[in-house]
Amino acid sequence: MGAFGAGPVGGMREVADAAVRGELAATIGRRYSLEEGPQAIVDFARKHTTGKLVVTVEP
């Protein structure tokens, strides 16, 4: 079975292993402040996003 093959858990084990090894890159589409959190939800719901959305919390 190759990497990400269809195994007993649909290949998710291989994906999880690759993530642990740091082989998966996550593209951050946009960063939002906590105050902009509601806009992040709207953008996500309307699919106005590319990559991951990150909401940051300042101490």
In percent, how helical is the residue content? 25-40%
Strand order of the largest sheet: 1-2
Secondary structure category:
alpha+beta
For the residues shown, what is the average pLDDT? Answer: 84
Total domain count:
1
Mind explaining what this structure looks like?
By secondary structure, this protein is of the alpha+beta class. It has one domain. The chain has two helices and two strands. A two-stranded parallel ribbon has the order 1-2. β1, α2 (37-45) and β2 (52-56) form a beta-alpha-beta unit. The chain is elongated and about 35 Å long. The model has no long low-confidence stretch (mean pLDDT 84).
In short:
This protein has one domain (12-56).
Task: Name its key features.
single chain, alpha+beta
Break the fold down into its secondary structure elements and pairings.
Layout lengths: L11 H9 L7 E6 L3 H9 L6 E5 L3
Parallel strand pairs: 1-2
